[in-house]
Structures are given as C-alpha cells and as structure tokens.
Amino acid sequence: MDEHNQEVIVETSDTEEELKQEKYKWTKDRIFMAIIFTFVILATIAIYIMIIIDKTFLFVIVKDYFLKPIYRLDVIYKVLIFFGFMILQVIVAPIPSEIILISCGILFRWWGIPIGIAGSMISAVIAYYISKRGGRSIIDASSKKVKFLDRTIVIFDDWIKRWGIWAIIFGRAVPFIAFDNISYAAGLAKIKDWYYHLATFIGCFPRTAFFSYMGIKVLGENSIEELINDPTLIQSAATRFNTIFFSVFGAFIFIFILMNIVYYVRERRKRMIIESKLDEQENNLITVEEPGSNTNVITTEKEIKNKEREEN
C-alpha cells in the first residue's frame, strides 16, 4: 500500500509539473530579465576565455579602468565609483566581485572592509533579483529539458530547506566560493528574501576582510602609482589576480560537479530500494486453485490468511 501511495504521489507530482509547464507564459518582464541573465552568463564565459589567452588581461582591465582613473580622487568619489563598479561587474561585465574587493583593499587599505561590505550587499541584491526574475523563469519553463541544471537547483532548494540561513552564511563566508554565483543560485532557489539579505550581510564580514587583506598584500609597501606603472609589479599583481580568479572558478566547478554526483547517487539508491521492495512484493505472490473451478488465482500470503479468518 505504501509503495502504491508513493507511485501515486510521484505520478501526481509529474502531472503537476507538466501542467505547470503547459500553463507557463513568457511575459515581457520575464523575457527581459531572462535576456539579461543569459547575457551575464555569456559575458562571463567570454572573460574566462580572454584570461586564458592573455594572463595580464584581468589586472590590466582593473588597472586601466578602475585604479588609474580614480586613485587620485577624493575619498567620497572613490567610494561612489567603487559602488558603481560593484553594480557594473554583476550586470554588464561580470568580473568576479572578489577581484573588485581586492582592488578595494588596494585603494582604501583597512577601510576597504566596511566599504567592501556595503558594495557587496548592493551587488548581491541586484544579482539575486536578476536571477530570481530571469533565471527562475528559464528553469520553470524548461526544467525537464535542462536536467543537470534543474538537478542543481533542486539540490540548492533542498540545501536551503535543510540548513536555512546557515547555508547562505556559509556560502558567503568561505572566500573561495564564488560570491556572484551564490547570489544567482539563491535567486534560482526558493528562499525567503529576508533570509537571503540577512545571511549575505553576516557572511560578507569574513569574506570582505579576507579579500581586502589580499589587496593590501598586493600593494605591499608600494604606492598605487608604482603598482600601476612598474611592469614588474604589474606582472606580479596579474599573477596573484589570476590565481585568486581561477581558485574561485575551480572551487565553483568542483562544488557544482560534486553536488550533482551526490544527488544522482542518492536518487539512484532511492530508486533501487523502491524497486527492491516491489520485487519482494511480487515474489510473495502465490498461485492457488480456486475451489470448484479449473482457474488458478494469483494472490498473496496476507490475502490467504485473511480469507481463512473469514471462513473460520
């Protein structure tokens, strides 16, 4: 009976999913957000390719378009431009926020921590809502067609249900788990907005402190002017930037693959248990001869005992 109920539940769930897909409509708002989400993904891939081709590509962008134009400005303008870059990197040019936070440490030294937290919150909120309005639309519209991506979102949903706010805090606090990827993943998952914002704020403290410190170490005893003009220092800084960049990317890919493997193994084990119980039930079937008839009836031990009780 339990197995039958389980099958009914699964069939009902699949039916609901099919109806959901049939009824799903692409509104103008959803299409617009989905286009932005897709653009961000494609731009990210393009940047990874450029970094592989040119090892100094990432730091040269930061140096020429972020550090060099603003390092002589007043502090208030530096802070506002930093916030602008945190917004820009998550929407238009998805250079990982970790790189911008290192630059924040170069510009502001230890003041980079509170400034970096504020900038991280701004970018995290924007990425979350882009993903929630655009990315979730893609998943809901084609969940059965993009199985590996749908599986990842299911895993993240389960992770949030199990650990709640601590799941986001952990994802934020560990430096080499990509910040922007957590923001987009949280937008795809079913999580309460206030959970996300509170967990992001708490998790930003250790993360921002770490990358601000990395920025201070990159600068060392040199001035910013020396860092952006000395070829030797540029090469050294580019190497450090690339190491951090690919460490974050590698950690993300590793976690992504591991989550999918664990989920696949777990679901396969569940299926095997259900199939084993069904086989066991089939093996308990007994063939008996119906009295006064040449017909054989297939029944179970339980049904035979119940019939004997009724006859007695």
Would you write up a description of this structure?
- With about 300 residues, the protein is mainly alpha-helical.
- Helix content is about 80%, strand content about 5%.
- Strands 1-2 form a two-stranded antiparallel ribbon.
- The two termini are about 25 Å apart.
- Residues about 1-15 and about 20-25 have low confidence and may be disordered.
Going by helix content, strand content and strand pairing, the class is: mainly alpha
Percentage of helical residues?
A: over 70%
The CA-CA distance between the termini, in Å, is 26 Å
Tell me the series of helices and strands, N- to C-terminal.
Answer: HHHHHHHHHHHHEEH
Indicate the radius of gyration in whole angstroms. Answer: 28 Å
Quick one: overall form? Answer: elongated
Number of alpha- plus pi-helical segments:
13
Average residue pLDDT = 74
Strand order of the largest sheet: 1-2
Total domain modules: 1
**Unreliable sequence segments:** 1-16, 19-23
Report the sheet-strand fraction: under 5%
The main sheet comes to: 2 strands, antiparallel
Q: What is the β-strand count?
A: 2
